[in-house]
Amino acid sequence: MNPDQLAKRDRLLAKLWAQSQHWQRIENDIKLALPPNLRPYIRVAHIENGCLVVLAHNNMAASRIRMLAAGLLPRFQALLPEIQDIRIKLVPQSSAPEKNNPHTLSETALNELSHTADNLAHHPELAAALTRLVQKHRK
Question: What's the half-sphere exposure (Cβ side, CA atoms, 13 Å) at 36?
Fold first, then answer.
């Protein structure tokens, strides 16, 4: 169901939805004021006592935005006059866990699959797929 339709049914949900859209617009406007290469690494957390709190995903982005903060402040103030300062917090993104395939094939099974692939001249795609499977599991 569409979030707009849900929000029309419940006043509290409508208020939360409006707040969410408001902050999304603020974040989008602030990101547009940033250099394009920084945009993917920056998130707007909140505005607290006139201070815009920005989350940086890595040290490079945090350092770069700190360098640019004085020049960016007037742009941000043009968007939201209540912003008086910028504070950058480093919040590293966790990397994706390394894939670990718990499934293994015995050497006998790999040999049989390899032998089967060699005998499938009439089905070259299947033979190629079996060969790739064998090579993947032998590494």
Answer: 0
